[in-house]
Known about the structure:
Layout: E1 3-6, E2 9-12, E3 17-23, E4 30-38, E5 45-51, E6 56-58, E7 66-71, E8 76-81, E9 90-98, E10 105-106, E11 110-115
Parallel strand pairs: 2-11
Antiparallel strand pairs: 1-3, 3-8, 4-5, 4-9, 5-6, 7-8, 9-10, 9-11
Amino acid sequence: xxxxxxxxxxxxxxxxxxxxxxxxxxxxxxxxxxxxxxxxxxxxxxxxxxxxxxxxxxxxxxxxxxxxxxxxxxxxxxxxxxxxxxxxxxxxxxxxxxxxxxxxxxxxxxxxxxxx
Length: 116
């Protein structure tokens, strides 16, 4: 299984980006997808998740600004990021686990840089 993360870039504070995580396998039977980020010198942190039932959860700093969604037909999970802040600057990774897996798969990461 391959996950292709894309959509990162350079944006000014207050701007928006939409990240995509495209899977090489149908996400119909996916159990969990998470978007993580890692800034230089920091540990990787979980930002947003969506489970098989469509239930979503967010870290406190992302609530009300970031929105995770999925398009089953496109086998893609999105992270819409609004009102971006300089502290959102990081490499963003997606991780997905299917129902018949014992561990998840990682995408390659996409750089998000927010200028002040």
